[in-house]
């Protein structure tokens, strides 16, 4: 097992090399002629209208909260799924009840309108 | 001939024997083997992606009936493959502009991080019988967690650029990735349940019958986010043309832009290969027991078939805008994934593993068909109700 994680460690180092190599290579090869028009944030031809780092309406934050819930749920259920073939019907039904409770949470968030994309409000 | 039968494993053993006979201490042999394996494995996706681009261009050009860089004639011989070389070299020769006001460190680190995460996934993807970087006992979990990490690179690109378009596109992209991550993680649960393991090789070994036959709905749930890989049609609003111009990559140029595209393609290839591993049996196929190298060939064929299918799907349907896309993911895929886990759990207990594999697969398939009919019924009902309220309202 340690051997397997050792490979992941070595692979991490290798992939960092692969990630850093292209910019390093480009640093040597690429032309360098910085001029004023290129240095602006131009959005491909459109000038920025206002500041970027402003407060904005997050459309999906209730879903992100629900997402945390479901991700934790997936993490909880993975060990259960792993042991599934060894489990009795009782444990399976208990897990299903657990899922159904969370499904209830999903329906609640849905009824609250958190899943609707509202483009009219700003 | 014996050597060719299990080529990749034999090269490894041969190299190890060579190093040991050269009189190196055992620890160094081990370290050199690990490093060589890691380098070889990291090259696999990067080289494969170049041919993926070529394959995609061929399909896209035929679907859209247009001329693409796969029709270079005499300049690109053979088969316009020289164009790929040009594509690989070109980004390096481009000027690299960092816009004024950008956070330089975050801006430059984002593409590096994106590529590192994309390459890291390949550590646990089995490429043949006994050919895998590291057969982690948490392989699937490792893939899922890396999938969530790629959001960080998107956010870094958007925030670091410090321009409105890039930032809003990055937020759109993250909303997409979050929404698709949940059904994908839940669909993997059903596979883990049947395989009884999180290790990729064990999941392949468990597929006497490919899981596609036993769990077609789960396969669809897994494939929907793959179809929606950022920036790709029909479900990919990260790079939406009319809404966000070029997505979170808008301010990038030169090699950094190239790295983002490379990371995206490597990720896409990884998802398709993982799909082939989880649902199509990976390297399993006839005669693999006698000639293990055939396993790699089967895997490549399965992956090519999946790419062909996905590309045809992508170009047959119009693009969804982000509201529709998130709606599909939240109101349809997520509840379906939850119900799917319950149904598979019950059906799996009704048809125990001791029964013959085809019988069990058939029982699960029946449960899936029933569930699909129920889903279609619910959709028809919801559609009718929506139409009625539209008429009366």
What's the total count of β strands of chain A? 0
Mean pLDDT of chain B: 83
Distance between the ends of chain A: 53 Å
Q: How far is the N terminus from the C terminus of chain B?
A: 75 Å
Order of helices and strands of chain B: HHHHHHHHHHHHHHH
Gyration radius of chain A (Cα, Å) is 25 Å
Number of helices of chain A: 4
Largest interface: A-B, 69 and 89 residues
Quick one: how many beta strands of chain B? Answer: 0
Which structural class matches the secondary elements of chain A? mainly alpha
Helix content of chain B: over 70%
Report the sheet with the most strands of chain A, covering strand number, pairing sense and barrel closure. none
Q: How is this structure best described in words?
A:
The complex is a heterodimer of chains A (122) and B (393). Helix content of chain A is 63%, strand content 0%. Chain A has helices spanning 2-29, 36-39, 61-82, 89-111. The relative contact order of chain A is 0.07. Chain B is 71% helix and 0% strand. Chain B is mainly α and 393 residues long. Chain B has helices at residues 2-5, 7-21, 26-64, 82-89, 104-120, 139-161, 164-195, 200-205, 211-214, 216-227, 241-244, 254-279, 293-316, 322-350, 357-392. Chain B is globular, with a radius of gyration of 23 Å. In chain B, helix 3 packs across helix 12, helix 7 packs parallel to helix 14 (322-350) and helix 10 (216-227) runs antiparallel to helix 14 (322-350). At the A-B interface, helix 1, helix 3 and helix 4 of A face helix 3, helix 5, helix 6, helix 7 and helix 12 of B.
């Amino acid at each position: 097992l340690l051997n397997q994680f050792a490979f992941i460690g070595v692979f991490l180092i290798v992939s960092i090399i692969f990630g850093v190599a292209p910019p390093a290579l480009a640093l040597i090869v690429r032309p360098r002629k910085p001029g004023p028009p290129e240095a602006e944030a131009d959005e491909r031809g459109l000038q920025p209208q206002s500041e970027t780092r402003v407060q904005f309406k997050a459309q999906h934050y209730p879903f992100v909260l629900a997402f945390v819930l479901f991700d934790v749920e997936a993490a909880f259920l993975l060990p259960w799924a792993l042991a599934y073939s060894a489990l009795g019907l009782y444990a399976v039904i208990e897990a299903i009840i657990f899922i159904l409770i969370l499904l209830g949470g999903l329906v609640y968030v849905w009824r609250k309108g958190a899943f609707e994309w509202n483009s009219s409000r700003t | 001939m014996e050597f060719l039968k299990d080529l990749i494993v034999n090269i490894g053993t041969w190299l190890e024997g060579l190093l040991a006979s050269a009189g190196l201490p055992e620890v160094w042999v081990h370290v050199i083997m690990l490093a060589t394996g890691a380098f070889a494995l990291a090259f696999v996706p990067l080289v494969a992606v170049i041919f993926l681009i070529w394959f995609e261009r061929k399909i896209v050009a035929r679907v859209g009936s247009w001329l693409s860089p796969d029709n270079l004639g005499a300049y690109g011989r053979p088969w316009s493959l020289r164009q790929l070389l040009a594509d690989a070299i070109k980004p390096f020769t481009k000027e690299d502009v960092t816009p004024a006001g950008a956070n330089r460190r975050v801006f430059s680190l984002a593409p590096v991080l994106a590529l590192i995460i994309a390459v890291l996934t390949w550590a646990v993807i089995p490429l043949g019988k006994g050919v895998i970087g590291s057969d982690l006992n948490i392989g699937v979990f490792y893939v899922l967690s890396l999938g969530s990490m790629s959001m960080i690179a998107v956010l870094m690109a958007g925030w670091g650029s410090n321009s409105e378009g890039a930032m809003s596109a990055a937020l759109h992209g993250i909303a997409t990735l979050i929404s698709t991550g949940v059904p994908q993680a839940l669909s993997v649960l059903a596979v883990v349940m049947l395989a009884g393991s999180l290790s990729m090789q064990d999941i392949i070994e468990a597929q006497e019958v490919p899981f596609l036959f036993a769990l077609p709905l789960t396969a669809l749930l897994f494939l929907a986010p793959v179809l929606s890989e950022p920036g790709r049609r029909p479900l990919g609003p990260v790079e939406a043309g009319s809404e966000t111009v070029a997505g979170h990559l808008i301010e990038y140029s030169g090699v950094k832009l190239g790295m983002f595209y490379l990371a995206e393609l490597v990720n896409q290839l990884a998802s398709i290969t993982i799909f082939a591993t989880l649902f199509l049996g990976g390297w399993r196929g006839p005669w693999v027991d006698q000639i293990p190298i055939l396993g790699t060939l089967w895997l490549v064929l399965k992956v090519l078939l999946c790419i062909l299918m996905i590309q045809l799907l992508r170009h047959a349907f119009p693009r969804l805008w982000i509201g529709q896309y998130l709606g599909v993911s939240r109101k349809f895929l997520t509840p379906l994934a939850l119900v799917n886990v319950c149904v598979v759990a019950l059906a799996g207990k009704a048809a125990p593993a001791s029964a013959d594999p085809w019988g069990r697969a058939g029982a699960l398939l029946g449960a899936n068909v029933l569930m699909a009919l129920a889903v279609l019924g619910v959709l028809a009902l919801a559609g009718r109700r929506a139409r009625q309220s539209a008429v009366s309202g």
